[in-house]
Amino acid sequence: MIVQKTSWQKVATFLLLFVVISAVFNVLILSARELRAGDGLYATGIMWASGLAAMATLKLHGCSLSGLGWKWPAIRYVWLSLLIPLAYAAIAYVLVWTCGLGHFPNREFMQKLVGTMGLHASPVASTLLYVALEASFGLVGSMGRALGEEIGWRGFLAPELFKSMNFTGATLFSAAVWALCHYPVLIWGDYNSGTPSWYGLTCFTVLILGCSVIANWMRLKSGSLWTGAILHASHNLFIQAIFTPLTADTGKSAWFIDEFGVVLPVVIGGFAIYFWRRRHELARL
């Protein structure tokens, strides 16, 4: 009972600090009316709000930061964390392309890459180089931003909730918080794909729930927050930097692609069910 009370006190402290820190950057973004305002540093601030809140919470409660799960995971979890987002993104976008909901390739984007890569190569060669560099070195930059969030969500919140709740309850709680923190820029900002807010919010929330099941399972199974950071970085990179821009709009593609369309959340949901059914493998903390 004492352990549960202490856990919930930590969670309450974390949530309060997170709201205060993230509010500062939400105000800056909404004032600028652009997610990438401030050269993207406002968005980076939001992404690191949960990590800063988690570390401050542990210090305020006299706990060591080592409890966040800094150890590097076993290599199989590293590869799973990297490849799972690639797998569900590939399945989702192949479905989109084959069903005519989006067109592949996006030749306009490929043509822009000729100038972006600066080698005066063909669109195909420029695109292949872009994808190779994004999938390797781009992952490093993506992890730097994702780590901030994952220190909070997977390093602190998921295992802290798992001390006093079962896996399903802990995941629903953490997913709700994770989704809600995106709502200000989803509703009042430009972090959307142009569909009605209710539709984008619904798709995004379902996607967050599915990702939370996978990421929480990996964190609790491996004992490392790095699985969450790699998963998160891989997800953002493959979807936002590769698959979505390489998909040309057919008129209604926004309703089906990216994090605000319906296809990706459904596919991720299938992966999530698989990991949820394996929740019995997780040892109690």
From TrEMBL:
Domain of life: Bacteria
A GO BP entry: CAAX-box protein maturation
Organism of provenance: Dyella japonica DSM 16301
Lineage of origin: Bacteria, Pseudomonadati, Pseudomonadota, Gammaproteobacteria, Lysobacterales
Positions of transmembrane segments: 12-29, 41-58, 79-104, 124-144, 165-186, 198-218, 225-243, 255-276
PANTHER family: PROTEASE, PROTEASE-RELATED
Keywords on record: Membrane, Transmembrane, Transmembrane helix
Pfam families in UniProt: Rce1-like
CAAX prenyl protease 2/Lysostaphin resistance protein A-like domain location: 136-238
InterPro entries: MmRce1-like, Rce1/LyrA-like_dom
Protein name: CAAX prenyl protease 2/Lysostaphin resistance protein A-like domain-containing protein
Keyword Protein transport in annotation: no
Alphabetized GO MF terms: endopeptidase activity
